From TrEMBL:
It comes from Pedobacter alluvionis. Pfam families: Ferritin-like (PF12902). This is Ferritin-like protein. It comes from the Bacteria. InterPro entries: Ferritin-like, START-like_dom_sf, VioB/RebD_dom. Residues 13-319 form the Iminophenyl-pyruvate dimer synthase domain. The lineage of its organism: Bacteria, Pseudomonadati, Bacteroidota, Sphingobacteriia, Sphingobacteriales.
Amino acid sequence: MKNNELNMLVGMLHQASKLEHCLLDTYLYTASTIKSLPEEFALLSNGKPNLRKAIQFEKARQWKQSILGVSHEEMMHLHYVQCLLRALDESPSFALPDRKKDTGNWFISNWDIYQPGETQDEGTEIPLEGLTSKQIKQFILFESTDSLQDSSPFGDQNKALFQKLYEFELDFHLEGILYNIADQQKRDDMKKALNDIYLNLAPSDEGMLKAALLEALPDAEEDLKYVRFQSIGDFYTKGILPLYQQAFDTGKVKNSNLGFNNEMQGFAAGEGFLPVGPVYRSKNYTEFSTANAQNALRYFKNVESIVNEIVEEGEGFEGFEATAERFLAKVTEIGGTRHYLDAWKKDKRNARTKGYSTPPWLADAELCRQSHLYRFVMIYMDMEFEQQLCKNVGTTFSANRDPLPIDMDNHSLKKLVAEMPKQFNACYLVMLSWLSRIYEVKLWETDKDRRLAIEMIATWPMMSLSIRPFLELISFFPVDLKAMFRLDKDALPGLPTDATQLADYFLDNERSEAINKQVDYLALRVLANVSDWAKEQIEVVKANFSGYQAEMIITRLSGLSRLNEFEKQFPFREHGGYSNTMPDLNYQQEFPDAGLFSENPSMLGQEPKDPNEQDRIFEDTLVLKLRFGGFGLVQLSTDPDPPTDESGCTGTHMLHAADGERTLDRALVWQDLPGQKNILREPREKLPPIGVNIIDLTLQVTANSGATAGYVPLQIMQSTGAVQTSGVQQYLEVNGLNDLVKYDSSDVLSTGSSLRLNLLEKDGIRPFLNGDNHLVSKDGEPIDPFIISVTNDQHQNIFQREIYNEGKTLLEMDPLQRVETSRWPTGFDANLDDIPTWLIDHLPADYTQALMQGPPTYLASRADVLYEELNLLLNNGAVMDQNKVDRLISFTERLFLITVPRGTTMGWLSILLNYGHSVSGILKSSESDNPIYDLIERELNLKVSCEPEEKDRTKANSRWVVKYTKGIMDTDAITDLVYGELYIPLQVIPDGRKFNIKKKWVFAPGMKDLVAGYTCDFSKPFWDTFIIEGKVRSITLPSGIKIIETLAEHDTYSYSYTADGVTGIDGYTGSFKVSVMDDNRVELLLEVSFGFENTAAFKTMTTIVGGFFSSTSAALNAHFSPEQ
């Protein structure tokens, strides 16, 4: 291979990079313009209510999801092109094609022939536009083959094929919705009714649709002139591939990319590229694409495989028409769509089964269905259909968001619109600057630590936290799109000058370690500047806009305002830190106050009494243990959707029209309070009830050695499925507490209702999982804000406490300080048998029964519930008004997500997430009107307070401890199971009364004599070894205190005694009594009473009593196993 052929190959790869890059950009922008809330479809273009609001909303989300999926694959294609350049020892190339001066569109001249240095008069324009009929047609041409272009892509023959494919996809969707209905007649009846609604429901009741799907759809009114161009597939297979063969044959491939590919499969890049990759087509194809990502370019066949993937995923999919006809014929051959769906579901179930291969016919069909061309054709057909429906009632349909009308005399708004593309370009520049470093051959070793940090944050986090929300933001405003995706200085913010300086470095090929450091410094400064800009614009928007559109804009600006987080994360990642993983010692030494906000209950920061002794969280004190459980709402869009997505698209949680004017606002809801916009799915009475309740209260006392809290191993887990985690999973365990007495929650309130547990909002921010798409945290995010509150059934405060933060949010802390808070999960748990029995007994029986039988049973039971509701709606005879249509479509689309579930829909139903930490910030309790205090005083003659005697957070008894589990995510109800334990130290307030406490055990009927014979003989104490001298017995405790007990009264079924030995204690009495209850069960009652001079004496005596109760329980459990 001569240099001119090598230069030609490199030039063609540069051209391929430009092409993949501009396609990626235009697909991303178009997807970002699509309306994404039901409210955006509420009115027709004539201002009338839109009956098809719910249908169009669901379709538009599918279109956006599909185009974003194509964009992800274009990103992988761009990655492959950079790998091919890298193997030739060439620098990465992220340039874009030139733009036409008159239109501002990217322009690729004479695409079918590569002639370096020559300019052609004709070519192909690639525009930035919203999702219009014109734009989707252009997308079809971009991804089509020569044969499809030559045969008139939108002529009668191809339209007829498109129509058949469209009919299949609707049938596939309806069969998926009704998949779990075994009764064929019932299924057919419901399918017919749904088919009629999806196809024949007019957008307005002012005109009824007569057309049916099978009638030919007219072309769009606009007669577009497309410049025909050779397919991208030909460019790869006939241009790049033969030249690369020569490069291998002549030894021009200098880098096998072995080290690079190993790094790409490593932890850092694995996090960054987590959601990026091909859409599932078949198990065979997944193995093929995975091998392409993992294999080094040692052989020409590896290059050939990569090119085949690029072509088969989209660019010039070979034989589209023949493959589509073959696949439709196969559907008929096997008995119809339902049988195809059976085969498809079986293939998905076996995607990870070793030795399984997708049947060739199904692999062939799915390769066609998931190709870029097919997906764009389906969007085109769907849009044409909706446009025709609207035309029939005298209105029009638009899928893309119209910019808001802007008063350009308003200086603030004019400035906002003018600056928006520049600020976007600044973010775009940062991403390109960092992406190019991933593929750079120069300084490969010296740049490693920084490059690993880049691999984690420059791909998915940058795309989801800056690029996508920024493009969505721009779609609301009349921005000059010619100014987008530009890096010239006029297209960047002028001040501060960080962006223009960064552009100088990016456009210059010179690289050194010093330059790389400066590039990173400037990149972080640019993102911080964009953050500042976004914060300023929030006030501008609040002052000039209102309604749901203002909320959508503010949500995206708020997300962009957090881009300064990259400035904290980059050095943290560079030094090996991530999420709750500690960085290296060099980084740690720079932050001596890292433990300032620590809520680790095992490390209080005490001066140790013994180097081997763990800090005591509680010492010489009473502790109130509250066990809680119930269901919370998880109102967030899930990965890979950005946190700014309020309706769900590429993730698992989805908003539906019947949810009303509510959004996925990231809130964790443990109590449904008045005035909150909580998403409460129907049928409410058949879904998990929202609310986390206190189940029982136990008054405990510390043992002689005090109480400790520590993290103990649960299991070793390695998961890359529904959650990403590895290593030893732990849970928090509190030791050294003895039970005194336990009460049901219903014993506290006079109404007999339960106490509640809630997480409160702070400064208008409701609690949420703070992860920001793995920028702040990996799977298993800390909750912020964290203010835990115990209330009565009217939600009036009883106890309330915040984590210690000195007024700072989690994001305002340094990443190392966040790690030290210990607020991250202690571990995942995939064993549902670890759910405690005390909780199971308080959950709805049908819920636990379905749950324990596994996700398929759980989802099937939910489908049955929704089928019942759907059938009632279809047959109630009511007028098809807006409310009914919204509910019908919401039920059907929820059903599809259940019956054709995503992996996370299934996986999250089997995952528990354990947390555990102390709570030591601001405390607010109701001291004067506190039903828990009243219960303790009424039952025990004891006044208490939760106000700590010890204010120093490093001392025992200064903190609360909470361990809690969230899990079993129900993505249909958007709920999760919540349970745990809260430990609150209590202080005793002496008032001269005797403390009185009772403890009982219950046995089966007929055991009265057996129990009495074992427990009611003073001379035979069953729980410990005493010295017996007639009516007196004594024991010396480990603390050195000698207790002397004297028999007072006795009979066959009881005895009482007095005791002495503890300084400051008087009038101590104790008794055992066995009796028969009303239901014939047998009760053993132990009662203790004593007076005390001061709190020190009380603490000593209750510690002894606590040990006594613990020993008696252990002995009785060993001998009898009482019922309770």
